[in-house]
Each structure stands twice: as structure tokens, then as C-alpha cells.
Specification:
Elements lengths: L2 E4 L4 E9 L5 E9 L2 H15 L7 H13 L4 H19 L9 H12 L7 H22 L5 H5 L15 H11 L3 H13 L3 H6 L5 E2 L4 E4 L2 E5 L2 E5 L8 E4 L2 H12 L15 H15 L8 H12 L4 H7 L4 H8 L13
């Protein structure tokens, strides 16, 4: 492993040949190392990575894994994955050669996270562990790693939360009174609760997505904000594209809200806020109304719970994501709904 001294700069550099993934000879040169040892270490690690050797460090494996993920995942999914790996996985394993990571090594890492159990939810611990296991699965499939030490070790955390939080209609009505001083908040939370749409779907809506004559709203895109840039993406899954029937009072709320927007075009985002705004308003409304704090996504659960309470099948909810049958039935057999959105049961 030849390395060289740059006498002028008093630093070291390495220059060597290697074969790329197509079998072509390439030359690599890297300068600026403070010591000869650092230059040799760089060359050794570069060749291990180029040859897909299991002697490569975990950090090099993650680089290969993330390069692959970046071409296959949505930008938001990629960034979430990268954030978790950079924060909770890389600091522990980064400099370890992957063929030296044993199940006992993974167990020690798990125990370190579990020692902060009060700081991390069971679902978060499960998610972090899954990211590590996915990296080793990638190494097994493409770089001949014999086994996945994370799988042998066993998982940690739980897939599902201990309990599902949701609001009753009464709780929602108390909350909406607390945020109706801001028209965008009232309209947004009314839609979230009464339709069960996801927050990203809500934030991607335009006025053109509404058909007030048919009393429907079309869900066909998803909003995300990444690195100070607004992104309009495909829905979470292909089945997420759907048309939701909405009751007349909700049509009136949206028509009134949109009519007061300044210089608004129907193909622009109807709610030009972010998920951070929704979380802030959730905090404000819960504090003011003294209603228990739930997640934004739990409004989706609240909607499903309402439908089930009204007699619609939980099985249908599982199959379709959300039961829209009761909303469709509003036209045929209208429920007694007040202008404020209250079901008079």
C-alpha cells in the first residue's frame, strides 16, 4: 500500500489503482492526510469498499446502503431513514468492520438504548432496530455477509403503541371552539376529523380537488417539507388515492374559508402551512380547551372510532383504511348535523 509524502505541504497522500464495478481499471488519489497511517487506512478502507469486502467498516456499508436507498425511496422517507441512522446507529457501529459485529455487539447497543427507555417509546425503539437490521440484510444480499447479527440477536421495542388515543365528538367540539379564531386552523382540523385524511394529504389539497355539487374531495397527492422546500409527492400508497364524500356543513366551511383567501388560485395549496403549524395549533387548542393532547394522526383514529361507534364494521375500516360508507349515506339518509359540525345522536 504505497503512500507518499508531500514535502511542500508536509502532509501525506495515497495514489493507487483499483477495479470499478464494471471491471475497469481506475486510479484513485487522495491528499491532505496528516500522517502516513491515516493515508494507508484510507486506501485500505477504499479498496475494501470497492471490492465489496466484509472487511469494510460499518460506516462504508451505510454509505453504499444509503446510495441505493436514495434512488428507490421518496425524499421524505429517505431523509427520515438517514436521520435515524445518523443519530442512533452510526455513532455506535461506524468504525467497526462489519464482519466483527456479533449478535452480542448488537445486544450491547440495544441495552444502551433501553437504558434510556423512559426517553424513547417502544415503537421508536422498534423502528431504530429495524433500520440496523435492514442495513445488515442489504450486506447479506449484495456483499456476501454470512448472517444478520441484528436478526440473530432479536428485536427490541414493539410494533404497535400500547394504546390508541382518539377524541370523541364532544372532545373535538371543545377543541375546535378553542382554535376557530384562526380560519385556517378551523377548516384544517374540521377536515382532518370528519374525513380521516392524513395531514400530508390535507396540506396538499387545492380547491380544485373539491366538487361541492357532488359533495366530494379527491385525495391524489401528499405534501411534505424538506430542507425548506415544499414538495408535492405521490400519496403514501397507490390505494391512498380515493374520493371522499363530505357532508354539506363541511362543504360550507371550505367554501367560506377559501372565499376569504387573498389572491388565491384554485390550483394552489389550500392550506399554505406546514405540519409544524398543525402541531403548534394542536398544542394551543388542547391547552385552551383542556382536552387531552393527541397526535395529529390520532384524528384519523378518532374518525374511524366514530364510524365504528355508529355501527360500521371494523373489518371494513381495516380493509379500506377508513370507512367512507357513512359519509356516502349522508345523501341518502341525512344525519342531523348542526352547522358547527355536531352529530345530534
Amino acid at each position: 500500500m504505497p503512500v507518499y509524502k508531500d514535502e511542500k505541504r508536509n502532509t501525506w497522500y495515497c495514489k493507487f489503482y483499483y477495479k470499478d464495478w464494471q471491471g475497469n481499471n481506475r486510479q484513485k488519489k487522495k491528499e491532505g492526510f496528516k500522517t502516513q497511517k491515516e493515508a494507508k487506512a484510507f486506501e485500505r478502507e477504499f479498496l475494501n469498499k470497492a471490492h465489496a469486502s466484509v472487511d469494510m467498516t460499518f460506516g462504508s456499508l451505510v454509505e453504499l446502503y444509503m446510495e441505493d436507498c436514495q434512488k428507490r425511496l421518496k425524499p421524505t422517507t429517505y431523509e427520515n431513514k438517514k436521520y435515524i441512522i445518523d443519530l442512533k446507529v452510526l455513532p455506535y457501529f461506524k468504525d467497526m468492520p462489519i464482519n466483527t459485529i456479533e449478535p452480542s455487539t448488537v445486544r450491547k447497543w440495544q441495552n444502551e438504548l433501553l437504558s434510556h427507555e423512559n426517553n424513547y417509546s417502544q415503537t421508536y425503539l422498534k423502528t431504530v432496530n429495524n433500520q440496523l437490521s435492514a442495513i445488515f440484510n442489504f450486506a447479506m444480499k449484495y456483499y456476501k455477509l454470512p448472517s444478520n447479527p441484528a436478526r440473530v440477536c432479536g428485536s427490541m421495542g414493539k410494533k404497535n403503541a400500547e394504546s390508541m388515543q382518539f377524541w370523541t365528538v364532544e372532545e373535538f367540539n371543545k377543541f375546535i371552539l378553542a382554535v376557530e379564531d384562526k380560519p385556517v386552523s378551523k377548516a384544517a382540523f374540521e377536515l382532518l376529523f370528519w374525513t380521516g385524511m392524513r395531514s400530508g394529504e390535507l396540506l396538499a389539497l387545492t380547491l380544485n380537488d373539491f366538487d361541492f355539487e357532488a359533495q366530494t374531495v379527491s385525495i391524489n397527492k401528499n405534501y411534505a417539507r424538506m430542507k425548506d422546500e415544499d414538495l408535492i409527492l405521490e400519496p403514501k400508497t397507490p390505494k391512498s388515492k380515493r374520493v371522499i364524500t363530505i357532508p354539506p356543513f363541511l362543504c360550507d366551511i371550505i367554501k367560506d374559508y377559501s372565499s376569504k383567501l387573498y389572491d388565491y388560485k384554485p390550483d394552489e395549496r389550500l392550506f399554505q402551512v406546514t405540519k409544524y403549524y398543525l402541531h403548534h395549533e394542536m398544542d394551543r387548542g388542547c391547552k385552551k380547551s383542556k382536552v387531552k393532547r393527541i397526535r395529529i394522526h390520532d384524528l384519523r383514529h378518532s374518525h374511524a372510532s366514530l364510524l365504528i361507534e355508529m355501527g360500521f364494521s371494523p373489518h371494513t375500516y381495516i380493509i379500506m383504511g377508513l370507512v367512507q360508507d357513512y359519509l356516502n349515506s349522508i345523501k341518502k339518509n341525512p344525519l342531523n348535523i348542526s352547522p358547527g359540525g355536531k352529530f345530534m345522536l
